[in-house]
Structure formats: C-alpha cells, structure tokens
Design brief:
2 domains, single chain, 0% strand, mainly alpha
Length: 241
C-alpha cells in the first residue's frame, strides 16, 4: 500500500495543504528522510514501557510498525502531525481509512455478530465495480507479460474477481486495526502521550484482533505468538497515562 497524503481537517482550504507541504519535509533538519521508529529515538516515556524487541520490528506482522498497513499509518501520522499538532489523531485515522477505500466499519465495535457480517460482506457491491476490477486485472496481466490466462473468458474473470471480493473482509478489518494500533503507538513514541479517544480505539482494536472470529484465521502455528504479542501491546497501552 502506498503512503497516502492526507489533508488538514479544519477547512476546504486546508484540505490540500498537506499535499503542498509534504515536499518541504526534506528540508527539516530534525526530520530526515531516513527516520525510522526505533527504541533509540523514542520518547523517554515510550522507552520505559516499550522494551520488548518485537515492538520495533519492521517485519514482524503483529508488531505496531511491522505490517504494511501499520507502517504506512505510523509514518503517515508522523508527517500529518507536523501540520496538525492540535487535532485529534482520530481525524487522521478517519481520513486514512477513507483514502484507502476500505469498507466502512464502526471502529469501536466488539460485537462478534456484527464483525462476522463485515467479514462476509463482499468488497465489490455493484456490477460497475466488478467490471472495473476485471479490466484492471486484464491490464495488469498484459503489462506483466502473463500468458497463462489468455484463454480465459469474461465469465471466468468475473468469477475470480467475485470470489476474491468475498474473501477480503478479514484483510480489510485487520488492516483497519493495524492502522489504529500503529497510529496509537506512533503518537506514544513521538510524543510520550496518547490522545484519550485514540487510546480507547487502540484498546478496542487489540481486543477485537484477539476475538476467536479473527485470531483463528491465522496460521495455527502463529496464533500463540500473535496472542502473546497482542496482549503485551494491550498491557503497554493500558499503562499509558
């Protein structure tokens, strides 16, 4: 997923200011392009609580910054925060998820029945969307020089797209929760504090990922580690003032 550029929230004029100002960041001596979320550069309060090595991993799937959605959310938040010091990070999250185009979901939802409905809902709900995805898939195959599916007709392409759409709910929800968790940890690492509304959403996101309906979708050999890491993260967030 490509790092998105998010606008400020106060007015229509501010909506595009981030896109204009993002290119100025390379001239900031205290914000080099090589910045990485790390224990060494973390706020002293974050260092006191975030002393588990996995928390700083760039490749560990459950770590705050170790998955694609979480990494994009965290680094995007850092840039967004430069121009939005006094705005709740939850505004950033709403903008981010909207830009990603993920289906809408109530971020404070823990009801298993409602989560299951979201997981089973097809990502593509109209024939127009299905056709667009079919054309995108064909074009991608053409550009990649892939000849393995040249004999497929439109009905076969359509079936692939629909089946793929029906299995995306869990990926979307994991992505949303990864973004929430990463944004919360990013604020804590950068500022040593956590917006109370964001803190509540991070706690919910972690608890949601621990629910059987979601945790059991992972490889059986990875589930114990994921549970342990999620609980470690939950304990840390609960200790943040």
């Amino acid at each position: 997923m490509i790092l998105v550029s998010l606008g400020c929230s106060n007015s229509a004029d501010n909506a595009n200011s981030f896109n204009r100002n993002i290119f100025q960041l390379t001239s900031f001596p205290d914000m080099p392009d090589t910045f990485r979320f790390s224990y060494k550069d973390a706020h002293v309060k974050a260092k006191a609580l975030m002393n588990e090595e996995f928390l700083w991993s760039a490749i560990e799937e459950t770590a705050p910054f170790g998955n694609d959605d979480g990494s994009d959310a965290a680094y995007g938040f850092r840039l967004w925060r430069v121009y939005n010091k006094n705005i709740s990070p939850t505004v950033y999250l709403d903008q981010l998820i909207d830009r990603w185009g993920y289906p809408k979901f109530e971020l404070d939802e823990l009801d298993t029945a409602k989560i299951s409905l979201y997981l089973s809902a097809p990502a593509l709900k109209s024939e127009t969307e299905i056709r667009q995805q079919m054309e995108t898939m064909k074009e991608a195959m053409k550009n990649a020089g892939d000849t393995s599916m040249q004999s497929m007709n439109d009905n076969q392409f359509r079936e692939i797209i629909i089946l793929s759409s029906q299995s995306m709910g869990a990926s979307f929800l994991v992505g949303i929760d990864n973004a929430i968790i990463a944004t919360g940890f990013a604020q804590f690492v950068l500022e040593g504090e956590l917006d109370q509304k964001l803190k509540s959403l991070v706690v919910i996101a972690i608890k949601r990922q621990l629910l059987p309906v979601l945790i059991n979708r992972w490889d059986v050999n990875y589930i114990p580690m994921r549970k342990e890491q999620l609980n470690t993260m939950l304990n840390i967030i609960n200790k943040v003032d």
